[in-house]
């Protein structure tokens, strides 16, 4: 019984991860602003003066 619950839990988790990864929602641009590839920081693109 525990094995069945574990398998169902893992499948649901992987499904949720897949759904999140394939989304292209409104927040995609906002999320990219905080990514590692962003050149703008808290102080702007030129730095802290």
General description of the model:
By secondary structure, this protein is mostly helical. The chain has one domain. 55% of the residues lie in helices and 0% in strands. It is built from two helices and no strands. The radius of gyration is 19 Å and the shape is elongated. The protein starts with a helix and ends in a 16-residue tail after the last helix.
What class would the helix/strand composition place it in? mainly alpha
Mean pLDDT: 76
- The tally of beta strands, per DSSP, is 0
How would you sum up the global shape? elongated
Task: Report strand %.
Answer: under 5%
Tell me which oligomeric state these chains represent. Answer: single chain
Cα end-to-end separation:
63 Å
- The succession of helices and strands, N to C, reads HH
Rg calculated over all Cα atoms: 19 Å
Helix content: 55-70%
Q: Which parts are unreliable, with pLDDT below 50 for 5 consecutive residues or more?
A: none
Number of domains: 1
- Biggest sheet layout: none
Number of helices: 2
